[in-house]
Amino acid sequence: MKFMKIGTKPDTFYAEEATRTVISDIPSDLTIRINNVCFLLHKIPLVPKCGLLQRLCSDADDSDIVTIDLHDVPGGEDAFELCAKFCYGITINLGAHNFVPAFCAAKFLRMTESIEKGNFVLKLEAFFNSCILEGWKDSIVALQTTIKLPEWSENLGIIRRCIDSIVEKILTPTSKVSWSYTYTRPGYIKKQHQSVPKDWWTEDVSDLDIDLFRCIITAVRSTYIPPPQLIGEALHVYACRWLPDTTKSRPLHSSGSQTEESREKSRRILESIVSMIPSDRGSVSIGFLLKLLSIANYLGASPVTKTELIRKAGLQFEEATLNDMLFPSQLPTDQHFYDIDLVAAVLESYLVLWRRQSPLPTENSHMVRSIRKIGKLIDSYLQVVARDVNMPISKLVSLAEALPDVAREDHDGLYKAINIYLKEHPDVSKADKKRMCRMLDCQKLSPEVRAHAVKNERLPLRTVVQVLFFDQESGSRSTTHKPESITRARQAPIEAEAKEECDKKVQHEVTKSSSRVTETSEREIQKRMEAKMVRGDSEKGKERKGETNSTAKMMEPKQVFQRRSSR
């Protein structure tokens, strides 16, 4: 940062309440009132350097005490005091932080060369051109101060010249970047890196107001075609700088004018950032898009903003990881912790695009691989949110059922999610248990998971029976030594009949038990089913004439029922 010192006299200004004056043996003959502050000064030396004061004092005699109201001076009383000290020859220090108000006030007072040679405006312009515009951080600080005087800064060309200077430096090849900049990325140490990173400018620019930041980004993109990822990184840095973090815990929703004003400012920043995201896929990460969507839910952003974020996130959902999706719910009415509705909305957007691009996907196509990757991701997410003790079963089931059948090559992940939910929610009703387990396809469970399921007392009885049947069926197929066609021909009628009768009996008995059957009658049902399955196995044993080894293996799952019944 560069500074300019003007004047040689010591500071003789002092303030007493709302009055500011200069220590002098000569009584004050000029009173300047600005807002609630009164300056007691002298016509000499102010009037000779200020064209405005010359015009306002033209009708007064030299001996008269003149009072002038200058309430509309840009920069207020502080900027006017700088100009007054310059007239008195008192030392003042100028830098990027106070240049804009001083320059605007000097222009307002008409402290130009036409009034007196070597006047304040000329010195300020020289400092602006040779120091502020030549410096990187000086240009940014000066540009940021223009937000307090936007009209004056725009009319005097300060904003345009600062933006041009900043953009020129951004476009400078990294090998020629020699000025100081802020770069605090985790793990980055300047001494260990000889080359300047391509996004070296993003942190300093993030200090700007959102409207000025937009001007910088627009100017960069209009001057040349930067990599979309570079613009995306600048947006990411700005969002982290100004938007609330909703990834760790649920923000407190409070009322109050100051809080609402802050939320309105954050909404404006969010909507501006979303509108500046390049259309190129991958310009920003899916994690950043989901984070913006979570923030949008918290701030109550417009439906247009939310819809755009959901659309962009749906395009890149395949790239998401589990950690990218774990956001707390932002609705104060939600008792559950995780924002499962956010994931469901993005998944729906992804599925719309997936169905449009691949109406009849083949087994090895990219679209099948994509949807199966999403299937594993959603099942992993379900396993996490299932631990939420306040998670409604309806939301869990709705998200699980949103995936098409082709998305799950196996149902092991879905089974784990269901088992976790039942474990964390022991009071779930039988109807809800059936609703959850209805999603399972027992044929898509691995042998290890089926072995766990038949011993899982949390599952409904009907689900256990189905798992047992398919486990028995797969076991018989793996142990038979006869030709496959003969084996299927003999087993099919018997197994089909056993399954049909078993299902009918289970359905009938379980329906009765839901209203009036006690624990004793339930055990009786299990014994009946066991007997039925034993009879079915006996008939198959006769058909196979002595295939004792196979029959013994098929009887092993039934022993589980004996253990369950004995309990």
UniProtKB/TrEMBL annotation:
Belongs to the NPH3 family. Pathway: Protein modification; protein ubiquitination. It comes from Gossypium hirsutum (Upland cotton). It comes from the Eukaryota. Residues 473-567 are annotated as: Disordered. Coiled coil: none annotated. This is BTB/POZ domain-containing protein At5g47800 isoform X2. Keywords: Ubl conjugation pathway. Residues 496-511, 519-547 have a biased composition (Basic and acidic residues). Residues 199-474 form the NPH3 domain. InterPro entries: NPH3/RPT2-like (IPR043454), NPH3_dom (IPR027356), SKP1/BTB/POZ_sf (IPR011333). The keyword Membrane does not apply. GO terms for biological process: protein ubiquitination. PANTHER family: OS12G0117600 PROTEIN (PTHR32370).
